[in-house]
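Please fill in the sequence for the structure shown.

STRUCTURE ENCODING:
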């Protein structure tokens, strides 16, 4: 045990005596371990955030739009599409919106040219839409039956559009749709699974038909399936809407895009892990190369120790111990750096930091293993040196 402590002390002394060289050969393990810890940590943190979002938003929302079979130009769904879809046993709720074309929305007297060039989507919606989306009204209220019965010119703004218009909660605001005044009665919270709704204006079916001469046939439908039945309902919607034909309606599960993003993150994780392993391998070559040169530079030291009776094995073990210490310190530094990167990126992105501490010894051990393997050749080279030969080299 005392011999091991002596050997370790000599190895650490040799490393500290050549700080610049040590830092250079330590870069490989540091970068390699940091890349691997960062790749796994960031992917797991992103996955945790995605899981939290999916738990919050749900994975049971389905959207349906008319396909080309209903007409090539401005296709719409049948007027009773919502009723047909509600008849599917696993459907909990359904709602539809109808796009109202050719409407120019003006939040004030100014900006007409801009909003004519970049029109705001205007959608005729029913009273069930927020419940189907499972998104609350940020302020005010949603369109209700009284608005339709009393023929009230009321609008609800998407959350993004309200922010763009600078609407303050509780503020009485009037906007103009094709020159007709409409009172803003509410603001819908942002819809993460359907961000296109964030910049829309919602009106009643009566307003769409009366003020803008549109039939109000639904262009898009939102369906909430019972838990565990999303895929079955997704397959049943086209058949139910088109009465047997399955190619007249296009359906989509918005949460699937988030899950696809998670798959892309896993691919990125694998790429980063490979890059980390490559950095470790290159670092190992660097350790072998620099330590081989070090053997030549320290030939006088080796010769004196051999002349004083130090065995070949101890000389070899000294250099092997130096490689081990370099790998150990580099691995620990890389792990700390990787954790720091994960914490920083997670803080910026608003994620909860997820670090698998059980894997830390694995990453550090991998760095140590690569360093020791890289140190085998230099240590063997040092052990083979004879005292007389070191005088020639020195």
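FILLED IN BY: designer on duty
SEQUENCE:
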């Amino acid at each position: 045990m005392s011999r091991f402590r002596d050997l370790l002390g000599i190895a650490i002394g040799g490393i500290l005596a050549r700080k610049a060289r040590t830092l250079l050969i330590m870069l490989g393990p540091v970068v390699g371990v940091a890349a691997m810890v960062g790749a796994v940590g960031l992917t797991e943190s992103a996955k945790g955030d995605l899981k939290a979002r999916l738990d919050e938003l749900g994975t049971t929302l389905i959207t349906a739009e008319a396909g080309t079979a209903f007409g090539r130009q401005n296709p719409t769904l049948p007027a009773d599409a919502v009723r047909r879809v509600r008849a599917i046993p696993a459907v909990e709720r359904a709602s539809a919106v109808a796009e109202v074309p050719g409407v120019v929305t003006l939040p004030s007297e100014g900006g007409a040219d801009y909003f004519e060039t970049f029109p705001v989507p205007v959608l005729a919606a029913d009273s069930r839409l927020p419940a189907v989306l499972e998104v609350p009204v940020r302020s005010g209220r949603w369109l209700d039956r009284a608005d339709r019965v009393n023929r009230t010119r009321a609008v609800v703004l998407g959350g993004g559009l309200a922010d763009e218009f600078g609407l303050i909660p509780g503020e009485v605001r009037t906007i103009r749709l094709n020159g007709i005044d409409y009172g803003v009665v509410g603001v819908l919270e942002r819809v993460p699974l359907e961000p296109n709704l964030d910049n829309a204006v919602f009106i009643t079916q009566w307003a769409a038909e009366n003020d803008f001469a549109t039939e109000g046939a639904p262009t898009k439908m939102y369906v909430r399936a019972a838990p565990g039945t999303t895929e079955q309902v997704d397959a049943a919607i086209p058949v139910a809407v088109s009465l047997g034909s399955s190619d007249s309606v296009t359906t989509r599960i918005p949460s699937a895009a988030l899950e696809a993003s998670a798959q892309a993150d896993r691919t990125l994780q694998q790429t980063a892990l490979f890059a980390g392993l490559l950095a470790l391998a290159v670092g190992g070559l660097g350790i072998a190369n620099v330590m081989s040169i070090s053997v030549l530079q320290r030939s006088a030291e080796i010769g004196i120790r051999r002349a004083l009776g130090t065995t070949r094995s101890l000389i070899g073990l000294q250099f092997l111990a130096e490689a081990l210490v370099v790998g150990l310190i580099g691995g620990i530094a890389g792990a700390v750096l990787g954790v720091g990167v994960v914490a920083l990126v997670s803080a910026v992105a608003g994620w909860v930091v997820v670090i698998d501490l059980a894997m830390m010894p694995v990453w550090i051990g991998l760095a140590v293993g690569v360093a020791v393997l890289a140190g085998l050749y230099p240590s063997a080279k040092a052990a083979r040196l004879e005292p007389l030969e070191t005088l020639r080299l020195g």
